[in-house]
Specification:
Chain lengths: 213, 535
């Protein structure tokens, strides 16, 4: 197995590791602002139309949403586990865990797809087939605009994450990572946890309004 | 014979287009923004020609709308924002910190490609018919009524936004992690403090613009009505989100200039910068406070008077760190051994023009006065003093200053001084009359106006033609000097920064051995002696 060497702009692997991590944290900060803009807009409209948004939220599929939350949280756990064992040079276990996490990601997308299909049949998709009656129709329409944009963008991030996890899993299998060199695995894990956290916020904001009473 | 350097290392075309060398990426950026600068400038030229007469005799109203939109979009996103950070910054950041490259060299090249792609998508939108919304893309006009190619233009800006984000991210991480041994934060050249502050804005504000533009594009494509009042949407929310990015973006368009001027004033006064820590932290303060002033673009939009009050107050606060910088540059020059080389002329022009631009900004921060001059030429003149008088002047100053390092050739000094002076006069003649026009009541974005305004418009147009010539001059003499200029020594200005302690042009890996930093960045004595940071 070849010993890992730092890229030419770094003095040593430790510096490379720190740089990679700070890079990912900075990227996550930009992503927070990216989703933050959308969540802000959502909150503004929800504050303006509390009844309509509560009514609309009751049409979301909370069972699928809840299962999906569990799926993502579990995958995050597997990824964290994988990074730990990769540092202990248990390459086989690490790659299996990463691929399992990627599979869970695929499961998440599949469930999300089923959810979209149900919503399509219920005529809740703006710009495609939206049809909804009642006094709060305009608010429900706005809610579903945000619903599809937010969950769609999140799904895109999940899809990218699945590819990343699959590649990192393959690298782990080849025994590339060790306690000295594990920057790609750590950074990919950070990204995956972030995607997970975004979902936790979206779940609370989108599925839960109007359910308590 | 010169030793191999980053320019002569490999001359094939693919070695340029697939380079990850920060110095070559900087040159690629320079080529890109020069192209966009002249496209934006051409639009401005037609605008000024049209405005020479009160009638709309050169272009129709519809074409005029498209012209000022092209001018704004191209100049803001494809020239000003990448100007100093992506060219000069890209070139000197690793050199100044004694590193071999930026933290993420491939990401750096990616961001150039994204920038060019965004630029060409926007230009394509111009060629197939243009956009008539103004650079601000205000809703609901942009989403519902505009007959221009809003989606294409917005897509171009959206793509270029990711280039900004990646550049900002790269600089932040590089400055944190790749500094040479001994280079503590308080030994960083002030240009790096400015770029750091700029990068924070690039990384944190641009994503909000990306989201906002995405919503505009979706709204326009699918008519989903997020900004359509008839559907419960709120057009004002667009303005909040847009200015949450675009006001900090104004500081993206001035902080790097301030950083350049801090370098120039010190080198050409042969003195250490007065109040180094204050100048350094004022950059951070401007970036920080700059995130909380966006509402001053919306005093007449119908936002709550209380919000207006707070935003007005915060806008006044930003003036404090800005003034600290101006005072400290002036104090730096006091009793200095001043040399009036071309870069110093640009720096002096910057200080004067930025002061006028900044002080008129305070007029606009006053709620009552702002109501009077909103959407008039007063505002146009104000932000051109900051962005053109400030940033473009600083860009030229920095370009001349680092030119020997970038190309290995000296620029012709007398031509450069003549251009600097011509730019200063041309600029003032173009934009000072616009303050008066604004106070007299001339609204922006109109090309037909009452005849009594003509004298000021003619003055402005004459100034613009001088300015156009002055901006073309460097293209010729700098281009000439690339091939025929005198060969530059490694440190032609006897400056202290690490970038001057390696040959001009630098070798591909920047330094033969990683420098060890032993002193503060501006160690000049009055006899004109300079002690390099690593000596």
């Amino acid at each position: 197995m070849p010993e890992a060497q730092p890229a030419f702009q770094f003095v040593d692997l430790r510096q490379q590791q720190q740089t990679a991590q700070l890079g990912m944290w900075t990227f996550i900060a930009t992503e927070v602002l990216f989703f933050g803009g959308l969540i802000l807009a959502y909150c503004v409209y929800r504050t303006g139309n509390p009844d309509g948004f509560a009514e609309a939220a009751r049409h979301t599929k909370i069972v699928i949403g809840a299962i999906n939350t569990g799926v993502l949280l579990t995958s995050s756990f597997l990824v964290a586990w994988a990074v730990t064992v990769a540092r202990l040079r248990q390459s086989g276990i690490a790659s299996v865990l990463l691929w399992l996490a990627a599979l869970l990601g695929l499961g998440f997308l599949a469930l999300k797809g089923i959810e979209y299909a149900i919503e399509y049949h219920e005529h809740l998709v703006p710009a495609l087939n939206f049809a909804y009656g009642g006094p709060n129709a305009a608010s429900v329409y706005l809610f579903f605009c945000f619903y599809f944009i937010a969950t769609g963008l999140h799904a895109l991030h999940v899809a990218i994450g699945i590819v990343v996890l699959a590649v990192i899993g393959r690298q782990a299998r080849r025994g590339l990572y060790s306690d000295r060199y594990h920057a790609p695995a750590t950074v990919a894990a950070l990204y995956w946890h972030f995607v997970d956290v975004v979902w936790v916020f979206l779940f609370a904001l989108i599925y839960l309004p109007g359910r308590a009473s | 014979m010169t030793a191999r350097n980053y320019l002569t290392e490999d001359n094939s075309l693919s070695s340029w287009f697939f380079t990850t060398d920060h110095k070559r990426v900087a040159v690629l950026y320079a080529a890109g923004i020069t192209l966009f600068f002249f496209i934006g400038g051409a639009a401005a030229t037609i605008i000024r020609l049209e405005l020479a007469t009160p009638q709309g005799d050169l272009v129709t109203s519809d074409v005029y709308n498209r012209l000022f939109t092209i001018h704004g979009v191209v100049m803001v996103w494809f020239f000003l924002i990448p100007s100093i950070p992506s060219t000069l910054g890209n070139f000197v950041v690793p050199l100044m910190i004694g590193a071999r490259d930026l933290a993420f060299p491939r990401l750096n090249l990616t961001s150039w490609y994204l920038f060019m792609l965004g630029g060409f998508v926007t230009l394509y939108a111009v060629f197939v018919g243009g956009i008539d919304t103004g650079w601000t893309f205000y809703t609901p006009f942009s989403t519902m009524y505009s007959n221009g190619h809003v989606v294409l233009a917005v897509t171009g800006v959206f793509i270029a936004g990711f280039s900004s984000i990646l550049t900002g991210l790269n600089f932040i991480v590089t400055i944190h992690c790749l500094r040479a041994p001994g280079l503590t934060w308080y030994r960083l050249p002030l240009f790096l403090w400015s770029l750091y502050a700029t990068s924070v804005i690039l990384a944190l504000a641009t994503p909000v613009l990306a989201m906002t533009l995405l919503l505009v594009a979706l709204d326009r494509l699918f008519g989903i009505g997020i900004f359509d009042p008839a559907r419960g949407g709120d057009p004002l929310l667009f303005q909040h989100l847009f200015w949450f990015y675009s006001h900090p973006a104004v500081y993206i368009m001035i902080l790097p200039g301030m950083g350049v001027v801090s370098e120039l004033v010190s080198v050409y006064s042969r003195k250490t910068v007065f109040g180094y820590k204050f100048v350094a932290w004022s950059a951070i303060a401007i970036a920080g406070v700059g995130f909380f002033v966006w509402g001053h673009h919306m005093f007449v939009s119908g936002q709550s008077p209380f919000a207006g009050l707070v935003f007005s107050f915060m806008s006044f606060i930003v003036a404090v760190p800005s003034a600290i910088k101006v005072f400290n540059w002036t104090a730096t020059m006091h009793k200095g051994f001043i040399r009036f080389d071309a870069p110093m002329l640009y720096a002096l022009a910057f200080i004067g023009l930025f002061t006028i631009g900044g002080l008129t900004g305070l007029f606009l921060a006053c709620l009552a006065y702002d109501v009077y001059v909103t959407d008039t030429y007063f505002v146009v003149a104000h932000f051109h003093y900051i962005m053109v008088g400030g940033m473009v002047t600083a860009y030229f100053g920095g370009l001349h200053y680092w030119w020997p390092k970038i190309t290995g050739r000296m620029y012709p000094e007398y031509w450069a001084r003549a251009a600097a002076i011509l730019i200063f006069f041309g600029f003032n003649m173009t934009f000072f009359p616009q303050f008066i026009l604004g106070i007299l009541g001339m609204p922006r974005r109109y090309h037909i106006y009452p005849p009594e305004f003509q004298v000021w418009h003619v003055m402005s147009s004459v100034g613009a033609s001088i300015l156009a010539v002055a901006y073309l001059l460097p293209l010729f003499y700098l281009g000439w000097s690339m091939f025929f200029g005198k060969r530059a020594p490694s440190n032609p200005w006897q400056a202290t920064g690490l970038e001057w302690q390696t040959p001009s042009p630098p070798p591909s890996h920047n330094f033969a051995a990683t420098p060890v930093v032993k002193r503060n960045p501006y160690d000049y004595s009055l006899k004109g002696e300079a002690r390099p940071q690593n000596a």
